[in-house]
From TrEMBL:
GO terms for cellular component: membrane. The lineage of its organism: Bacteria, Bacillati, Bacillota, Bacilli, Bacillales. Keywords: Membrane, Transmembrane, Transmembrane helix. It is a multi-pass membrane protein. It is found in: Membrane. It comes from the Bacteria. InterPro entries: DoxX. It comes from Paenibacillus nanensis. The keyword Protease does not apply. This is DoxX family protein. It holds the Pfam family DoxX_2. The chain crosses the membrane at residues 6-25, 37-62, 68-87, 94-112. The keyword Transmembrane applies.
Length: 113
């Protein structure tokens, strides 16, 4: 991994640790979004757990580099789901997917480096 890969990895670690925490602790805005998506609340916990698995995979990839591909693919899949939830299920405006799009791009960077 080069310096850019480490920077991208740390950004994803920070963002998805925060994202998982907002879901696990049922932060008010996250609950509102989840209501907009019309997903059951148990799925919020599943999503948060998958986000943490992605974070753990990135952290573990510092020791076991082969894990990075799997962690990045998981995060990319989660971000595709987030974009779908915002645009299709909740019918949010396009600006609502900017963060998910950026995280998808960072995950893609790690996948296709």
């Amino acid at each position: 991994m080069n310096t850019a890969d480490y920077i991208v990895s740390f950004i994803l670690i920070l963002m998805f640790t925060f994202s998982a925490a907002t879901k696990f602790f049922r932060q008010k805005t996250m609950v509102q979004h989840w209501n907009d998506y019309r997903y059951p609340f148990w799925f919020m916990d599943v999503t948060a757990a998958l986000e943490l698995i992605g974070v753990i995979g990135i952290l573990a990839s510092f020791r076991y580099p082969g894990l990075l591909t799997y962690a990045a693919a998981l995060i990319a899949a989660l971000m595709l789901g987030a974009i779908h939830a915002h645009l299709v299920r909740a019918k949010h405006k396009l600006y609502m997917v900017v963060n998910a799009g950026l995280m998808l791009g960072l995950a893609a960077w790690l996948l296709f480096r």
